[in-house]
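@channel anyone free to eyeball this complex?
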Amino acid sequence: MRFPPNDFFYVIINKFKIIDCLARFKARHGDNKHKNMVNKDQIEQWVSQGMVTREQADKMIVDVSKSKKEESSNNFIVTLSTVGSVCLGIGAILFVSSNWDYMSNFIKIAILLGSTFGALYAGYFLKYQKGNFPKVGSSLIFLGTLLFGATIFMISQMYNVNANSHTLILIWMLGVLPFVYVFLSPSITVLTVTLFYVWAGFFIFRGMGFDESFHDFLYLPAIYLVLGIFIFGVGGFHYLKPAFNGIARIFRLAGVEIAMISLFLLTFRFFSGDIAERGFSYGAGGDVSSQFSLSFMIFLMLAAFLSFAGLYFNPSKSKTNSLENLFAVGLSLAAMTFFYFPLQSDIFTFMFNLMLAGIIAALFYVGYSKADVKLVGIGMFWLEIFILARYFDFFWDLLPRSMFFIFAGIILVVGGVALEKKRGQLKNKFTAKPAVS
Amino acid sequence: MLLSLFWLAIIGVFIGIKEFTLRTGQEVLLKTRPVDPRDIFRGDYVILNYDISSVDVGVNNNFTNGDKVYVGLDVRGNYAIATGAYTVPPSNMLFIEGVVKRASDRSIQVEYGIESYFVPEGKGGVLERAGSNLEVRAAVDKGGNAVIKSLLIGGKEVDLK
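replying in thread with the prediction:
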């Protein structure tokens, strides 16, 4: 049914149509204008479907173009501010450390605390109280969390606390953790997760030198696989509160990335192959320290618990929840079997290769299901790395060296171009899908 | 505001614990044992190893790696020496808390948290040349926590400024 343009009801109905278009778009892609901007193809589709007029479409295209330019300059400002904050942080630390000998403890602490709280308050003021420099404010708050860590380490130097103490990193991590939930900042969330992974490494190897921890080192990918699953599970439960959706995603991606790196390392015989060939006595439990074994067991139990709980409760309300958490459970079981039942064969290497291929396929499936370019991108990246690694394994001894490197170069160049092209197509496809499903 | 107080509390407790040990702890002189001289430096700090880092526990050694241990100290001559290792804080004696780094048949290697001493950049040569003449003055509080007060070479406090 069509109405004359100057009819009151026509205006109202078309206004509601635009609102309906945008509401359906947001329901499908999330209310994140930075990530899932309406584009020209989408608008043209709406015009062809009669949902908006040509006039409205032209105005929307102009608005979208302006928004994209603003988004670019915002990204540039964020990058500049973050780099500036990091430079300020490094400069403050270097200034204090270079004049360390000439200052009393009181002055050292005063400067460190002053810098830390100064950055924090400046950021809070600019972002929340004045409100006209939100990006710079966020960067300064992030700088405050970095300076907090520097303060902890500088004070520990003053009192000659052991340099490899895991407690310092734990204090830093616990100190910035509340900031994740108060400011909902992606950069602080990434910092917290990174500190967790670093702390775990120091905790696992606390008090041990390299010689006595060599066998533990060989099982490092296995324990970090478990840690990645744990963080993935933690991220899933953050979806219970809608305000934490952004943080949940960061946790989950951080879990996926570490799990993928660990799983990739486990596809090599050096980390998962014949136990005798790697220098272990049969029964690796005797060669791995009790400290490492206890840490592995604790993190494994936590990861398995969260995976099962995620499978049962589906906190993210995701259609692909079963697949995601079944893989998490499967990986936990694989890591457990690998650690507690070592074998004098390369069966685990074969198993981890299969699992990596499976996870890559799952990333593609989940990414396509959720129209998530990031997930598909991660899958594409690891597919290329996986193919390259196996190419090296199979053809290093078979081909003449020159041919080996020529073919490797061709794979990399062609693969890179193909992946980038595919990624661009996917990005357009996911944002150009009709809002009406 | 609350977050600022949270950070202040963390830093305050951290400094408070160390200052409490420094001000209320009993001062003891610990003889250092030389470490591999090539490995004595890691960046800007010195790795310290003590006579009390190795404790004789006799035939019935029930300690394993990672166990918390309380080592009794007795001052004989100028130096504090280890008199025994306990699983709970011993009463009526000075003791220092540590973690078993390595347990062998009759002895344990213990880490007390005072194995690093930070030196200004470029000033470590003095300590390197001291070798086994290096001594550490530490404060040990009633809970067995220890903090390094100063380093000495031949009985004289080292000034690295």
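from a first look: Chain B has one domain: 2-157.
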